[in-house]
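Subject: sequence -> C-alpha cells, single chain

Hey, anyone have a minute? Need the predicted structure for the following. Not urgent.
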Amino acid sequence: MFRLAHIEHLWWLAALGVIALAFILNLIWTKNRVKELSSIKLRGLVLPQFNTKTKWGHFILFCVVWIFLIIGISNPQIGSKLYEAKREGIDLILAVDVSNSMMAEDIKPNRLERTRMGVEKLIDNLQGDRLGIVIFAGKAYVQLPLTTDYAAAKLFTQSLSTNSVNNQGTSIGAALETCLQSFDFTTKTSKAIILITDGEDHEEDAINLAKEAKEKGVIIYTIGLGSVKGAPIPIYRNGIQLGFRKDKEGNTIITKLNEEMLSELAVAGGGEFFRANNGHIGLKEILEEINKLETTEMESKIFSDYEDRFQFFLIAALLFLLIEIIWPEKRLKFIDNLNLFGIKK
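Reply:
Had a minute. Here:
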C-alpha cells in the first residue's frame, strides 16, 4: 500500500506554474533587449555565447529538482503487509454535552473548549481501548462509533460545537440511552461511559437509565462543568461579544452546575463524580480508574510496517541539482563545430 505521510506539501507543486510564467516572461524580455541593443552584425560579437536552449535546459532541470524535492518532503511510504494486531482494552464512550449552556465562561476559556482540551489529552493516553463519542443537547447522536482510530477521534473532538445539535436542552437520558445502544453486549469487554455536562435541564429517566447500565455491566462516570453559582451564556459574532442569552421575558439566563444530580447519577451507575475546574476536568482521575478495569483481547486489522521512501526522491533531487549547477550557461563551441549530418558550410 502506498501513501504520502505529508500530502499537504504537494500544494507547493503549484508554484511551478508561477515560476514557469516568470521564466518565460524574462526570456522574452531578454531576447527583446538583445535585439534593441545590437544590430544583427554586432549581435554575434556582443553576445556570442547567448543560447536560448541552455536557458531552457537549466529551467527544465530546476523543475525536475523541484518536483523530486516536494515529493521527497511529502515522505512517500509503502506498507509492506496487512497484519492482525491484537490489542487489549475496554469499550469507552464519551457523552459530551454540546448545549448552549456549555459556552458559559465560568471555566476558562469556556466549558466546551475546556472539554475539548481534556478529551484530547485523554485520547493521547489511551492504549488499545476502543473509543466512541456521543454528543447531546435536546437530543443525542453518535458522532463517532467505537473505534481504535485515535486520529479520527481527535478530529471529531475538534469539531465539537453547540451547532452540532439543533434541539437545545440537556437530555442526559437520551445521551445514556444512545450510549447503551452503541455497545456490543455480546462480548465480555469491560464497558464505561464518561458523561461530560453541566447537568442542567435533565430528565427524570436519567437515574433509571444509569441503574440499567450498571445492571448490564456498564460503569458511568460523570464530570460536572461550571460553578454552582452559575454564569451567563455569552453571544459572539465574528469574535466580538454582542451580549448574553436571554429568556422570553428578557432576563439574562444564568446556567448553573447541577452537582447533586451528577453525583447521584454516578452513584447509580457504579462510578464516581468529578467536578471540573480551570486546572483540569477530571479525565486523568477517571482514566486511572478505567485502567483498573479488566481488559479484553481485541483484534483489529491495520496496515503496518510502513517504510519511508523519501530518501530516494531527495537523492534524485540532489543529483539533478548537481547537474544543473555544472551545466554550462554559455554555448559550447565544440558542439557548434560538430557536423553530425555532413552539411557543407
